[in-house]
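User: LacI family DNA-binding transcriptional regulator, Deinococcus arenicola:
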Amino acid sequence: MPELTVSSVLTAERSVGIREVARLSGVSIATVSRVFNDAAAVNPETRERVLEQAQALNYQPSSLGRNLVRGRSELLGLIVPNVAFPLYGEMIGGIEEVLGREGMSILLALSHDNVDSEFTAAQHLLRHAVDGGIIINSRLGLNAPLPAPRGLNWVQVAPEHTGTPHRVELDNEAGGRLAALEMLGLGRRRLAFVGAPGRESADRERGFAAELRRAGLIYRRAQGDYSEASGVQAAGELLEHNAAVDAVFVAGDLMAAGVLRALHQRGLRVPEAVAVVGFDDAAIASLLYPRLTSIRQPARAMGTAAAELSLRLLGGHRTEPITFPPELVRRESTGPPSRLSARHF
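Assistant: Predicted structure for LacI family DNA-binding transcriptional regulator:
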């Protein structure tokens, strides 16, 4: 296979019309090339004449050739744990919208929530000469940094480890406080938390626990892994031996779906007997029965912010970390306690 060079790409481009555009416009091939590379040195009248002839001939310059000349690929690498999780889909939508306006495309790779896979995915993207990169929920830390050539900075969305200068994240601790205040405001006093591995869940629990300490309360705890099945199992652990629980804060909406299912299987009405608050406000939250009160994570806006941050880095500008505030979205899974809430399960 012949070697791909700037010269060979431009030669191929010329063979499909650039010579004809130049001849009919009365200019050189180099002038046509400058017009399509947005060179300010081209006379406005000449530029207009060239563009008119190009349109008449339906001529389109090769973006590959133009990018090789500029030393840019117009590609942004994006690493996500998986594409099935709805929240990541919303983030990708925000990223794609911003980059599309700039004529850039996404090159996607999956990390599968695995450090080794994440490192390999980053190397794969770099081999494709991406101009920049965004990584969601990075597991790589200071002892195992992301591979990057000089000049390429990764923007991280909700990274597992702190200290990354170019990042976009949610104030998860504030979200935990919102959940606690919702439950306390409803008069719930026998509270529980279902967590999952990682910094985000830990921060959510930290805020939750801080508000309960302020109210002089303790809480029960169970561990899941963000899956619905783990939510079912965690709820079973919380309710075994007739333990008294009248409100459960769950670190993710999919786990909260499992908690709701487990409560239903035990004949416990939500919210009359047990109130439930989830986290993320994913699409599933409004599809469950009862509809789930959740702490909203503005996923699309976070994706938009990450893309804009990447563009600023590509432009050589300084950036600051961006932290979004959470929001409580109240639905039917929380409500005032009834006489059933005093029952010991």
